[in-house]
Design a protein that fits this description.
- The structure holds 2 protein chains of 2 kinds.
- Chain A is mainly alpha-helical.
- Helices cover 52% and strands 0% of the residues of chain A.
- Chain A has 4 helices and no strands.
- The longest helix of chain A has 29 residues.
- The radius of gyration of chain A is 23 Å and the shape is elongated.
- By secondary structure, chain B is of the alpha+beta class.
- Chain B folds into 2 domains: 199 residues, no CATH class; 149 residues, no CATH class.
- In chain B, strands 1, 2, 4, 5, 6, 7, 8, 9, 10, 12 and 13 form an 11-stranded mixed sheet that branches.
- In chain B, helix 1 crosses helix 11, helix 2 runs antiparallel to helix 13 and helix 9 runs parallel beside helix 13.
- About 7% of the residues of chain B have low confidence.
- Classes of the chains: A mainly alpha, B alpha+beta.
- The interface between A and B is large, with 64 and 96 residues.
């Protein structure tokens, strides 16, 4: 087989695989409606406010409920030192005061 | 048309043979290029999915949370203030919440302890909440509610725990879990049930307990609650109600739902610490690629162009050859990188990011992200990676291909 044919086939196969993965995303999105509704219902029933992503500090566990002086909440020189702090930003309510 | 296709096929044949002559360099380039696309696409898939899921789940969070603030810190809210809040016009319901944190020195993990709120005055949208697994531990099927949860089932002396807590303590329904109360006594509470693994993204570290047990554990009197939720009948009045709350209770801090949603919209923002490190590393690596290509051709490549022109290739043919060289590498890298990133984020649970995301926490939720993909972002990634590289390959070639073949072959310098 010619090298050009081989290359074009490989690109075509990769494009098809990517297309299938995008189709998988679309199908999963529809299929996951039940699970999302269940989580949303739990949030409503328990009156939850945050995702459980980082449990290492209270201001990373409940990002939206963080104190206004986060992360200097324990003492004035308590600089941010948790790894998850590098993924998140302060809530808009803190950074964008009127 | 057939002629044109045939000509391009021959040029691609030649290009591939030329690339394979410098196997190590070009495979190294391809691997690095794929890695850059993989990292960028993984970050893109992960952040978009988690933001989208957060917006869908948290749209049901309380409209307004009212905290009491003392000396810059969140303090316990006096229960007597609840009545004042109920009098605000526009507030349809005011409910106290009791929740807190407990550090478990045995597991080295932080838990969120929560007293399930009393049933809302407004009827729930569905009559069932299917969030609990049965005692055998098998996953709850959405159509089969195993636990009707409205606070009533939770008996004094029992707990309902999240999956993360069950993993951290290696416990199951029926086991007892000891807690050290504020007065030094040990509270032994029985695990009644486990929240479903489907809901881990919001419930992994949760421990649900009764109000009496919670107050006994933390020594909080009946006159205090942790904070208060306020439901507003008209969504457009939320800001007005929040302003009224501050007016009535100047030491309070209302947090509206919109702020909660915006918090998760800005999470993993590219301007954030780790994100900017990842992006700048990827961009820097890419700039080095492009610079290497755009700054000129090697003496060998220049000689190759000279020979091609001497044997009758047109300048346009040489440029087409170099276009295909760029396209072969960038297209292969783009497709491989994106496919690998999709598998990484949605099939392996972002295993590359996991150690960084876990941080120092011993309790980390095991959740499978729902694959939400933004075609707009994918197109942007394509334009930002494939186009500049291909263009960067053509420009120096055009300069070399326009000079005399004789001088191109003479000044090899090799």
């Amino acid at each position: 087989m010619r090298k050009s044919t081989l290359f074009l086939w490989s690109i075509l196969v990769q494009a098809i695989v990517l297309g299938l993965l995008l189709a998988h995303a679309a199908v999963s999105e529809n299929a996951s409606q039940g699970s999302l509704a269940e989580k949303a219902e739990l949030v409503k029933t328990l009156k939850l406010t945050d995702l459980c992503l980082f449990t290492e500090a209270r201001y990373t566990r409940h990002l939206s409920q963080a104190d206004l002086n986060t992360p200097f909440q324990d003492h004035p020189l308590s600089l941010e030192h948790f790894p998850s702090g590098s993924f998140t930003q302060p809530p808009p309510g803190i950074t964008q005061r009127p | 048309m057939k002629e044109w296709i045939e000509k391009q096929s021959y040029i691609i044949d030649f290009t591939l043979s030329s690339l394979l002559r410098r196997k190590v360099k070009n495979f190294g380039l391809l691997a690095l290029y794929t890695l850059i696309v993989f990292i960028l696409a993984s970050v893109m898939f992960f952040t978009y999915s988690i933001k989208k899921e957060a917006s869908l789940i948290l749209k049901n969070s309380p409209e307004i949370i009212v905290q009491k603030v003392m000396a810059g810190r969140h303090e316990l809210f006096p229960a007597s203030h609840v009545e004042a809040l109920k009098k605000i016009r526009g507030a349809s319901s005011v409910q106290p919440r009791l929740w807190g944190y407990y550090f478990d020195s045995y597991a080295g993990a932080n838990y969120t302890l929560l007293v399930p709120p009393l049933e809302d005055e407004t009827p729930p949208t569905t009559g069932k909440i299917t969030v609990v697994e049965n005692e055998e531990g098998s996953a709850a099927k959405p159509a089969q509610p195993l636990f009707r949860f409205h606070g009533a089932e939770l008996q004094p002396g029992t707990l309902i725990i999240g999956q993360g807590v069950a993993r951290a303590r290696n416990t199951a329904p029926g086991d007892f879990m000891p807690f050290r109360a504020m007065d030094g006594t040990i509270l032994n509470l029985r695990i009644a049930d486990v929240l479903s693994s489907e809901s881990e993204l919001v419930s992994s570290d949760l421990i649900l307990m009764t109000e009496d047990d919670f107050r006994k554990l933390f020594g909080i009197g009946k006159e205090f609650v942790t904070d208060v939720t306020v439901a507003v009948s008209n969504a457009r009045e939320v800001t007005t109600v929040a302003a009224k709350i501050v007016k009535i209770l100047p030491d309070s801090r209302p947090i509206v739902r919109d702020e909660i949603l915006r918090t998760y919209d800005s999470i993993f923002n590219w301007r954030g610490g780790m994100m900017i490190v990842i992006f700048s590393a990827a961009v820097l690596a890419f700039v080095i690629f492009a610079w290497d290509k755009a700054s000129g051709l090697s003496a060998g490549e220049r000689r190759e162009i000279g020979i091609l022109k001497a044997v009758g290739w047109e300048t346009s043919d040489v440029i087409q050859m170099k276009f295909w060289e760029g396209a072969v590498i960038s297209l292969t890298a783009f497709f491989s990188g994106v496919i690998l990133a999709y598998i990484h984020v949605f099939f392996t649970g972002s295993m590359v990011f996991e150690p960084a995301l876990k941080g120092w926490s011993n309790l980390y939720p095991h959740f499978a992200l729902k694959p939400f993909v933004s075609l707009e972002q994918l197109t942007t990634l394509f334009i930002l990676t494939v186009v500049p590289y291909t263009v960067a390959t053509i420009v120096p070639t055009w300069r070399a291909a326009t000079i005399d073949p004789d001088s191109a072959m003479r000044n090899t310098g090799e």
